[in-house]
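Friendly challenge for the regulars: who can give me the structure tokens for this chain first? No prize, just bragging rights.
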Amino acid sequence: MLNLEELDLNLIVKSYRKFIDGDTLKKDIITYIPRLYKFTFNICSIIDHRDQINFPLNEYIQNTFKYISNNQIITSIDYFQEKGYSRCHIYSYPYRWKFYNYITNNFRDGLFTNVTRVSLYDERPFEYKFFLRIQISFQYMKKLTIKNRKAQKYKQFIKSNNNNQILPIIEYSNLTQLDLSNTHDDYLELFLFNTNISLPNNLHLCVNYQSLKRVTYYFTRYHCVKLAALYCDPVNQMVEYIKNYFPYTCICSTVDFRFIRKKSSHTCFNRYISATT
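First reply, four minutes later:
Bragging rights claimed.
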């Protein structure tokens, strides 16, 4: 370790009372590697609210990195009251990893050309402008997972502006996998029916069946989205309704979503055909 000159560090740590910050890295890592000249890192530290009452401000965490001059350091703190924990995310920028997980509304923006896998999570709703920010920051994103159970606050305003065609287009041109299986209905409706969101025709979409049934008005609502495959778990007698609603789409089980690269569309399509015959 004494002769180490470059270090890439990716960590998720459950901390006790104190977030990992610049002082921690200097005291526990940098001091012991005197020849280190390139240090890139992506670190999330999590504190249970039962272990801590007072949390530092983001400005305090940022100030602990004053000694690092050859990298831009991004810091953010999120407080999740419903789940009962807080998370501090620190990373060196430019960001070199291929994934960026659990992005919240506190996202600091930037350009992430290496990232192809993105996940979003928050206890506050994601609005239209937030998804526009994601498009700008992650232009090479191939897989997107959204976990948010909060209804959008400005849904009707967005619908009105969408009809008047004054909203900027959100285009996820490289997206091939979209997981909406653990979201509020509003997000499924946004991606299926908002004409200002452009999705590629080879998209694999994973959804909750009950949510899909609600936003499509029991598979009667017109849509213009073309999918390569739809992953959901309907009761057997409803499969024909889904197949008629998405006539050119492979209908698969949600279990197959994680194995997209290993299974062909024809295989998972036959799985539900055989279940209904």
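Residues 263-267, 269-277 have pLDDT under 50 and may be disordered. Residues 1-95 form one domain. Your move, everyone else.
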